[in-house]
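Handout, section B. The chain below has 627 residues.
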Amino acid sequence: MIKKDKNTQFIIKMIINFKTQFLNNSYDKFYLLIIGSFSFAESFFILFSPAMGYDSGFHMTQTRFLFTHFPYAGWNYWNFFGTPTYLYPPFSFYFVSFFTSFIPIELAYSISRILTFCAIPILIYILLRVWTIPQKPAFLASLVVLGSWMYLGDLYVVGHFPQDLSIMFFLAFVLSYSKSLNSQTFVSFWPIVTSVYLTLAILSHYYILFVIPIVMITTILINPNYVGRKNMFIRSLLIFFSAMGFSSFFLLNYVDAIYNKILVNLSCCTIEQLSLFIPHYDFYTSGNFFGLPFLAVIPLAAITFIRHKHIIGNRLLILSGSWFVIFFILVMSNFMTKLSPPPDREISFLIIFAGIVSGIILKELFKKSSKKVAKITLSIFCALFILSAMIGMNYMVLYNPFPEYPHEAKKSADFLNDKMKTDEVVFITSPFDSMWFNVYSNHFQSIGVEGQSAINKQLRQIMKSISSNPDETKQFMNETGSHFIILQPSDVEKFTKAGFHQEFSSKISSIMSYDNGNNTKFVSGKELSNTTFLLGNDQITITLTNIEPTDVVIRESYDKNWYLQLDGKTIMLDKNQLGFMTFHITSVGTHQILLKYSQPLIFVGTMISLVTVFFIFIWSTKRLVYN
């Protein structure tokens, strides 16, 4: 009989312990079932209205673009005359793309959001139970999260699925991080699993890069497990840099983006989040409310601290409390970058930490209370949760302005799919049409969401300044060859007077046309003929004929990562006044042109990721053979 190695024995023991603690424990199964049922009851409305959340259309567009250009594309042709996609970690889009292979994208996105929404409170319960928190406090901690408008708002108001997916992996990371600090060596089960969870969190949303250092540093300083701080520090560094190595194929480009886009756009500080404690019924800020269960925890915490002062020395309470306080300060100070105007990044983590710290406080309360007091507290919390959830869902579902957006945007897209030419651009001034347009259309649009990530800043400024001026809009449409514009209803009369013709109307916008007599194409230049082009994954192939030397303009935004080959020879690219790519052809005749978007950091990062995987695999194999 072959003797099992230590890691295999450990994994088997861990599975048995988990089965004994949770699956064979009727109370744990009961609470997990209740948490799952409550979570699904709060989220299943998304199945009938996938548009809830103002970011939903944008994330579906990103998913569709990735699915269409599988396995990866670094350049999005649909928005802003070209947008680099590396600012958006790909894992959440791959996650939805998996379901998109079998079902429509709207349903795939909704199912993904519901799964994540339900998983987070369940993971909070499991985390607290692993931290030896009894069942009832752990259950109430999950209700604190589910009863908060912050958590509901992330689903119904923001629609920020990538961040929620990242939080799910973050909780799995926290769950395994404390165990990995107790491991004898780095190349063992828990440290490697912790690195993988952190990698998945990073590849789901970039904001986790700001959260993890806070969590690691506070854990080392507070040391809740009484482990040697030197070993904790070294183990944490190894986990952190392993995750960096695993995700380098994305991270290097993102670091470049941070340097060029984010650090120059910092803004701080405006204290305005009063709705954290007072329900705010303005739709866009209604998500910034802790909810009734957490408000009940506050006086109970005060009573517990007064009656049992010794719990202030509880290191788990200090640790989770420090996370909560740090993110509470971040939310209150509204320390932002222009990459993320609303504080939804900090808000999402704030309520997670509020739930965790609530569970630890309630543990101390239940420990010193009679069974009768515990039952009354449990009943009150359940009632407050139901009341808070019902009020929040009533407001966020019934008064949600977004449900009709995908249907109306699809009508506009279907109309233009029949009317527009392949290389034509639609000028969109309606922001939510812009978000949803490319969920249903392959045509280019001259504006989009997340404008700060657009590579063509000069063109964005032009579009922003002219969008409400019909005469300047005409000139822009002449230069870009656009014949159609999608307007908000309030602008229709003004543009009609300026000579635009109304072609189609939906509940949220109107499509108007302007016959500019211009035949500007994707590829333009003097005396060109027989011009064809093909868009591929990060490349454009063009065939054209010219009868005299000419400047050729490609109606795609210039970027340093574009490289041009003319008849097999590399030549320099330039940009015109609109920021489009242009180059000069001196010889006449038929030419083959290849434009390739190449990101050197993607190659370097991929090599680092492969080396990291190879190194850990070899090290693990070596230990396996040794054992």
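Note. Confidence is low (pLDDT under 50) at residues 336-343. Compare this with the example in section A.
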